[in-house]
Design a protein that fits this description.
With 102 residues, this protein is an alpha/beta fold. Helix content is 37%, strand content 25%. The protein has helices at 17-30, 50-57, 66-71, 85-94, and strands at residues 4-9, 34-39, 61-65, 81-83, 97-101. The protein has a five-stranded parallel β-sheet with strand order 4-3-2-1-5, with helices on both faces. The longest helix has 14 residues, at 17-30. The termini are far apart.
């Protein structure tokens, strides 16, 4: 059974946390770890960032807070799975490790 890593990002794309998320996710994927990213609050602005798209193409499962996106005028699209906090709770519960970058 593969190990699982969950990462939550709540900061906008210009914050240095985006690069850390990309680094952690890439390292995890290279080690065969199933990786999940949940974008919340201003983190939902990262949906359109090329780094996030590249991570998803590598097999990272990308989720975004539907409420946060709605509040920030981001339309629902196919770049992430838009979900609520129940999904975030399931990710936290289902992962071996969970990291938040705020």
């Amino acid at each position: 059974m593969a190990k699982k890593l969950g990462i939550m990002l709540s900061t906008p794309p210009e914050h240095k946390n985006r690069k850390m998320v990309a680094f952690l996710a890439n390292e995890a994927v290279q080690q065969g770890i199933e990786t999940y990213i949940y974008l919340i609050d201003d983190g939902v602005y990262n949906i359109d960032h090329p780094e996030m798209n590249a991570l998803e193409n590598c097999g990272v499962k990308l989720f975004a807070c539907a409420y946060g996106a709605q509040q920030r005028g981001i339309s629902l699209n196919n770049k992430a799975v838009f979900a609520g906090l129940v999904v975030l709770s399931d990710i936290i519960k289902g992962c071996d490790r969970f990291v938040t970058l705020n």
